[in-house]
Design goal:
Layout: E1 13-19, H1 21-39, E2 45-50, H2 54-68, E3 78-81, E4 112-120, H3 124-134, E5 141-149, E6 161-165, E7 173-177, E8 193-199
Parallel strand pairs: 2-3, 2-4, 4-5, 5-6
Antiparallel strand pairs: 1-8, 7-8
């Protein structure tokens, strides 16, 4: 099933939905319960989403935590972390638009911070997020929650909470489409979805060295 992103043309690829709206919701529910278990509750818990799709995922996780533990204030404990100026590919992609970093009023010093992102790939985004976090404060513990882990790590980074482990080839592209960050018409039950775009076998670019997508 093809679910093209808003305004995006994907020639010479096939697309298939890996996670539907319901699948994503179930994955986030499970991650929320894992966070509660590993943290033994919600005391001193901060949820920080990595801009840009990590933030709406962080908001959804925080809302689920609040539903389970009424003492947890989702709005007060959720923030956004921008990593634009900490990326190691900034010189190659100077046109990236920074997003605001929003830290809860209580700060992160001495607290348990759960970093949230959509896709874990090479690990370089998370390395940049850890560098950005150091400039914000000194948490007691930092954990990582991702909706999709697609493998192909280039740095020794591992997620603590994973919605779905998704083996992929380096030539495939994984897209996470969310209502908050990717508005547009999509099929019913796929308002939120995770899609894999794969090059068609007849595409000569498939054999081109280094051809592949990054996430």
């Amino acid at each position: 099933m093809s679910v093209p992103e808003h305004g995006e043309s994907l020639p010479a690829t096939t697309s298939r939905v890996i996670l539907s709206t319901a699948d994503i919701d179930r994955a986030l529910t499970r991650i929320a319960h894992e966070i509660l278990e590993s943290n033994k509750g919600t005391d001193d818990l901060v949820i920080l989403g990595i801009a840009r799709r990590g933030y709406p995922l962080a908001q959804r996780l925080a809302a689920k935590l609040e539903q389970t533990d009424e003492s947890f204030d989702a709005r007060a404990a959720t923030g956004q972390l921008d990593i634009t100026m900490y990326r190691d590919d900034l010189r190659k992609n100077p046109a990236r638009t920074p997003q605001p970093t929003v830290i809860p009023d209580s700060g992160i010093d001495g607290r348990t911070v759960v970093l949230v992102d959509d896709v874990l790939f090479s690990g370089r985004t998370i390395r940049a997020a850890l560098d950005a976090l150091v400039d914000v404060g000194r948490p007691r513990i930092v954990r990582l929650a991702v909706l999709v882990d697609r493998g192909h790590r280039e740095l020794p980074i591992r997620a603590d909470h994973v919605g779905k482990n998704l083996p992929t080839s380096s030539q495939e592209k994984v897209r996470v489409l969310l209502r908050e960050s990717d508005p547009g018409q999509r099929e019913e039950n796929h308002e939120d979805c995770v899609v894999i775009d794969a090059p068609v076998a007849s595409d000569p670019d498939v054999a081109r060295p280094g051809k592949g997508a990054t996430s």
